[in-house]
Amino acid sequence: MSNSNLFLKSAFVRAPLQNGVGRYVCQLQRIVLKFCKSHGGSRGIRDFIEQDLVNFAKQNPSVVVYLKPRRHRSPAVVAEYLNGDRVWMSMHLKTHSEITKWIEVLRTQQGDVSGARLRKYQYTDHPSLQGPWTPFTFKDPELNVAQLPDPKFGANNRIPMSATEKLRIMFEKQKISDEEVKTGE
Known about the structure:
Strand content: 15-25%
Low-confidence stretches: none
Structural class: alpha/beta
Largest sheet: 4 strands, mixed
Shape: elongated
Order of helices and strands: EEHHEEEHEH
CATH class of the largest domain: Alpha Beta
CATH superfamily of the largest domain: Glutaredoxin
Number of helices: 4
Mean pLDDT: 83
Distance between the termini: 91 Å
Number of domains: 2
CATH topology of the largest domain: Glutaredoxin
Number of strands: 6
Helix content: 25-40%
């Protein structure tokens, strides 16, 4: 096992500022599309700029979009988030549809979580002293040593009588009372 995770920063995976609880705030702050106007490897990103960039900007008014043409350089997308993270992604020889999907992924992320060592899988602002809840937290300890099926612990004790059972019992009582009436006459 490697100890390379010791050199990563320690972090939690959590929604910043309770994002999504009251309202949703897009965490993508700025996106920079770097491309070459003539190189063939930039064809997909140029198609995205020509066809989808205006719609992307209209649908995401909180995201600032920069276009940075560079001569004879490979295309790339740099996304900057509210928490200060920057994600750089190469778009060399990617198609228009692939670039559209990757930009949607960058838009919905909250930053670069892969560069952090996760200390816990859960996070809360008000931690419990008792630990996390499980389905077995408030179970009766006698259940550990009981021989099952046991009517004491069975679910049949708590299930109310069905309508069919009630009708059967009423029919049996009516049948018995009809027989008593016949024999009593």
